[in-house]
Amino acid sequence: MFSKLILCASPTRLIAGRWRFGKCLSCKVFAHDQAGFDAFRLYLLEQAHTPIYLIADAVDEDYRIETVPHTFGAARSELLARKLGQIYRNIQYRTAQFVGREQEKRKDDRFLFMALNNADCITPWISLIEELQAPLAGIYLLPMVSQIVLDRLKIKAPDLLLTVRQSNGLRQTYFQNGKLRISRMTQLPSMDDSKLTEFFLNETEKTRLYLISQRLIGRETRLKLLLAGMGDGISRHLDLERQGFESVELGIEEIAKRFGLQPAALEQFHELMHMQALASRVPSVNLAPTTQTKTYFILSLRNAINLGSLVVLASGIILSAYYLLQTDDLNSQRALAQRQTTQQEILYGEVAKNFPKTTFSGDELKTAVEMAQKLTGHITTPQRLMLVVSTALDRAPEIQLNRLRWELTDDIDVKDDEKQAQSSAKAVAQPTAKMAGNGSLYEIGFVDGEIRNFVGDYHAAMESVTRLVAQLKKDKTIDQVVVVQQPVNTSSLSSLQGSTLDGQAQQLPAALFKLKVVLKQEAHS
Q1: C-alpha 13: how far from its chain's center?
Q2: I need a surface site. Which of 34, 122, 254, 457 has the fewest CB within 10 A?
Q3: pTM for this model (two decimals)
């Protein structure tokens, strides 16, 4: 699951390396002949179920920039598939990599279309992989991996030409603003080191002229050469500064240090730099069709299921341990509660021995308590009447309260009889036909009062009583207010007494009045 097989195929050989957690464990070389194919078959059988990543280092490659309308999702996939079919009709290994969007007009998408025109260098190895149903994860051109190499080296320039010496030849890859644009490889002829520098300079000039012809750079553009593993001091021998190039040179030791490789292994296999880069990160696109990566997809799905099963299993184990601890804790609490209950029962039995004997059972006592609680919740007091009357009297300081009687009755026409009121506690009320419609009782109050400092102005006294009545009626809890007695007797049958000769000697009677107040019925739940 954490292992990878990195293969680098050239027309003459195949380099196979096994990586685990990003570290190279072993490396083998297989010749491009029948003996090499047979040895590679055995090698694959030893590395069963290990994902395979194949790098193609070939001469016959194609790179071109194309613009397509801006789309996304399934529409983009269909558009790219149709465009690839038009450009590379009979080529099996092809792909398109997103570059960016145009800044003007419709802001179309720009893609770099790549293809391996001649797949002879990888066909025998792919046939063996398919025959053994080994999980092929992807096929990549070596310049596609050079993009990762450039990111690892952290060298940036608007126009950069990466030059590396491979076992198969001299590879020069052009990057514009850090993005791959084109690459070319030239086979190295047999020559001594003195002619090798001149050959390198000629090939670099050919690459520059080709970039100018493709309008990728201008004639005045100053290329930055990144020489990786080309040999010590080659830039000084060629005097690249005078040739109009800016150069950065990285030797074998420096590359091995940056990529975590052994210098001796890198000196023997120059392709290890790209293989190490691919082991650390995979490009976003690859050349392999889906029919060749089906086994890898199934393996990835199986690994994902296995990983999910392990996560579920680990979660189940953790939850089981947690619940076991919870169960043990609950059992301890239950045992403690049982001991406490037993102790309380013993204490209750000892206390119950001293309880007085009663003829009533526990159920009867419980029923009595429940009824008492219900009756307590429905007790009616004269509090409402007292609150209403006191509020109204606060606004009438000239009136003095002499007597307030409150009665809870089913007769709304009840009269105020002081003798009857005194003996009402002993009398038994008789039901009448004038009970409230909902079966509840009326709250009725009788208010006896007089006018303070009365000097004989009966008209003013009656107005005070009238204002008091009006004030009482404003309260929402009052149903009706009836004046039972005015402060002056207005009956025509009453007789006049007294003398008008001596006003000071004549004592005025008190201006007494009586009101009957009926409160609205209060609903009980």
Answers
A1: 52
A2: 34
A3: 0.62
